[in-house]
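Help! Submission page says 'invalid entity' but I think these are all valid:
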Amino acid sequence: MSASGAFAQIFATLIGVALAPLLTGWLNQCRAWLQNRAAPPLMQPYRMLHKLFHKDVVLAHNASPLFRFAPYAVFGCMLLATAIIPSLSTDLPLSPAADALALVGVFGLARVFISLAAMDVGTAFGTLGGRREMLIGFLAEPALLIVIFTMALIAKSTSVTTIVETLAHHELVIYPSIAFAGIAFTMVSFAENARVPVDNPATHLELTMIHEAMILEYSGRHLALIEWAASLKLYAYSCLGIALFFPWGIAERDNLFALLAALPLLVMKLALGGACVALIETINAKMRIFRAPEFLGTAFLLAVLGMLVNLLLEARA
Amino acid sequence: MFDLLAIDGLLIAAGAWLALGLAGLWRPLRTRLVSRVLFPLSAAIGVFVGALGGLALGEAPQTAVLALGLPHLPFHLRLDPLAAIFLSLLGFVSAGISIYAAGYFRHDHGIPLGMGALGLEYHVFLASMLMVLLADDAYAFMIAWETMALSSFLLVTTDHKHAAIRSAGYLYLLVAHIGAIGILLSFGVMTGGAGDYTFAGMRAQHLSPFWASIAFLLALFGFGAKAGMLPVHAWLPEAHPAAPSPVSALMSGVMLKTAIYGLLRVSFDLLGAPLWWWGVVALAVGLLTALFGVLYATVQSDMKRLLAYSSIENIGLIIVAIGLTLIFHAYRMEALAALALTAAFYHCLAHAGFKSLLFLATGSVLHATKERSLGKLGGLIHRMPWVAWLALAGVLAGAGLPPLSGFVSEWLLLQGFLFTPGLPQSWLNMIVPIAAAAVALVAALAGFAMVKFYGIIFLGQMREPALKDAHDAGFPERVGLGWLATLTIALGVLPSAIILRIDAATRQLLGKGLAERVLEQGWWLLAPISPERASFAPLVFLLVVVASVALGGWVVKGLYHGRLRRAPAWDCGYHFQGPRAQDTAEGFSQPIRRIFAPMFRMERHFPSMRDREPYFSVKVEDHFWHWLYLPIARLTARISTLITNLQGGRIAVYLMYSFFTLILLILVARP
C-alpha cells in the first residue's frame, strides 16, 4: 500500500462523507423546484444533522443495546461502501478487501441491522417497517447481484476497481447488456434508497412508510447518524452507478492533481444524476407496496436479460 | 516402537464415546452424573477428534482393519483428507453441543428412561457418525449408517409420550430406511458384480456410463433422503422440532453433513470420472431444494421448524455447489471445480457451526420459556442477553452476511458461477448464470427468514406476561454457544487459513486445489483465482467496520455530547402500544405468502363482518404431502389390504400356498 494510495483512499472517503448530505439537499431542492414549491436551502441537511446531534437522545423504555448500536453499525457499513466504490480514483488500497459481491453484502448487513433495530422497540409501525424493508431487500438484492454479474462478466472480474478500469478503457461501443443492466440498476437504486416509486422519503402517512417507519423511534445523534448513513447510501449508489455506467473521468493515478481534477467532474455527474432522480420522482406516483414486487421483478428480469444478452452476443468478442 | 497413528486415536475416541454412554447406564437415574461428568468428557473427546481430523488433513491416508463383523468381511477403515474434514467438523461442532448439553440436561424433564439411556443414545450416535466417516467398505459403512439412523431415531423420540413426536420419529425412520435402500443398491451396483465390498474394490471397477449413472442417481437419492433433499425432505421439519435441542443441533449440524460426505465419497472418489449431466441434475435438485427450503422457512411459526426448513435450504446450496463441481470436473476444468468444491466444503463447515448455534439458542429459549411458537415469544434480549447476542452471530451468518462464515461460502459459490463462461455446451453456459440468479434470490430470502427468527424471538415487546420470568442460559450453555459463535466468526474472518487446511481434500478428489493461489496472496486476502479477478479480505472488512463504529461513537460523543434519557415509545403518538400491536410470525411473513402464493398450500379463514367471535387463521402446508406422500401412503395401504385377502384363516389354504411356492421354487431354481 503506497502512501499516495492511502491518501487517495482517505481523501475520497472524506469527500464522500462530506458531500453526501449535499447530494440529498440538492435532490430535495430539485424536487421542490419541479413540484412548484419553495425550495429548502442547499445546506438544509447539514443544519438538520447539526441540530439532531445537539439534541438529547430520547430512548424508548423497551429499547435494547442493539437499538443503540445499530445506527453506528449502519453508518460504519455505509462508510465502508463509500470507501470501496471508486468515486475519484481507482487506486484504492481498500478495494481488494471487498469486491462487488461483498459490497452487496455490506448493504445487506446494514439492512439487517436497521430492520432488527426497527423491530426492537416493538411498536406496530416499527415491525411493519422492518418487514417491508426486508421485503424490498430480498427483491432488490438479487437484481443488484445480477447487474454486478453482468458487469463482472464483461470485465472478467468482480473487483469494482477493475470493472471500472476495464469499462473506462473500452471503446464507445454500446453494449446492449449494459443498457439492460443500467435500467435494472436504476430501478434497484430507487427501491434501495427509498425513493418515490417504491417509498417516499418525504411521507408523513405512516401506513405507506418503509424507511421512515423503521426510524420512527430514533432521535438525537442516533437519528442523525441514520440520516447521514441514508445520504451516504444514496451517494454510494450514485457513485456506483457512475462508476459502472459512466466511468469516464475517474482518475487512475493518485496524485493530488488527478484527484482534484476528477472532483469537479464527479460533482457535475452527481448534480446531473440528482436532477434526473428528482425528475423521475416527480413524474411518478408512489405505488402500493404490493406493486413493488412487480417493479423489482421487472428489474430482476431485465438484469437477467442483460446477462443472457452478454453471454449470447458478446461473449465471443 | 509402537506408532500411534491418527486413525488409532480416532478409534480410541469412538471407543471412549461408547464407554461414556455405557457409563451412564451404571446409574441411569443419576442425572447429575450424566450431565456434570459425562457430557463435559464427551466434549473433550470432541475437541480431540476435531484436532486429529485437522492434523490428518495434511497427511497421507491411513488404513486399519478391525476384526469385527462377518467371518470373511472384517471392518475396513480408512482416514483420508475427505474423511478428515468431516471428522474435524464432527469433533469441533459436537464439542460445543456436548458442553451445552451438560447444562441443558441438568434436570431430567421427565425423560422416561432416565438420563443414562439418553446419554447412551447420544454417545452411540456420536460414535456411529465417526465410524461412518472412517468406514472403507460397504458393510462397515452400512452398519455404522444404520446405527446412526437408529440412535438418532431414539433420540428424536426421547419425549415419546406425545403422539406428534412418535409420528415424527416414525416418518424419520421410514425415510431413513428408504434412503438406506438407495445407498445399499448404489453400493451393489458399484461392486460391478465382483463381490468385493471394500471401497478399494469399487474404485478399481470401471463401470459403464449407464451403470455409473444408475449408481450415482441411487446415491443421490439415498444420501439426499438423509440430507433433506427434495422430494425426500418431509421428515426433516418434523423430526428436528421433535428432538431435544442439542439433538436437533447435532442432527442438523453434523448428521446432515455425513450424508453430504457420502455423496462426495461416491460421486468423486468411488465412481471415478463423472458425466456432465450428473452435475446438471444435482444443480437442479439443489436449487429446487434451496428455494423450497428458504420459502417455507420464512412462513413458519415454530422456531425449530423455521430452522429445520433453513437447513433444507442450506443443504440445497451445498448440493448446488456439488453439482457445479461435477459439471466442471466432467469437463476437466479442475481449477474451477476446485473453487466450487471448496465452496461446498466451506458451506458444510459454516452451516454446521451456525445452525448448531441457532438450534442451541432455541433450546435455551425453550428451557427458559417452555414455548416454541414464535407468536408467544418476544423481547428476550432483555432477559437472555447472552443467548441473544451469541445467537446474533449465527443469525448474521445464516443470512449470508459478511464478515461471517455464511458469506464466505456464498461468495466462493457465486465466484464459481461467474466463471462458467467457457463451458463447451452453450446452453449450459446460459442455464448456469440463471442458476446463479436463483442462488442470489435464495441468499436474500434467507436474510428475511433470519430477521424474522431473531426479531420475533429476541426483539420487541414480550408477547406473553410469563416471559418476564425467563432466565438466561447457565454457564455450560454459554460456553457451548460461545464456542460455536467463535467457530462461526473464525470461519468468517480467516477463510484463507481454513481453505489452506481443507485444500488437501479438494486435491484428493480433483487432483488440484486452491492452495498455491491462496498462499500467493498472504493469509489475510482471499483471492481464489487472482487478485485482479476477485478478492475479499474479511479481516480488513471487519476492522474497517469496527473502526468506523468506534470512531463514529467517539467523535459524535466528543464533539457533541452523550446525553440520553428514557421515555415511553413514541409510535406516532398512538395510544395503544401493547405487545399485540407488533407483527406476529404469520404477519411478518404475509408478503412472502402473498408473492409466492402458488408455492404454498394454504388453508385460510377470514372472519365475516357479522362474526360474533371473529378470528383469522392461516395454515401453510407442503404441497409434497398432498401430491406425493399421501398418494403413496394410500397406494401402500390399498396394496396391503389386497394382500391381506390371502390370509383367509384356513390352515388348508396356507398349506396350499406353501405347496405352490415349493413347486415354483423347484421350477425356477432347477440346477
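Support: the input was valid. A stray whitespace character was the problem, and the output above is from the cleaned input. Chain A touches chain B through 85 residues (CB under 8 Å).
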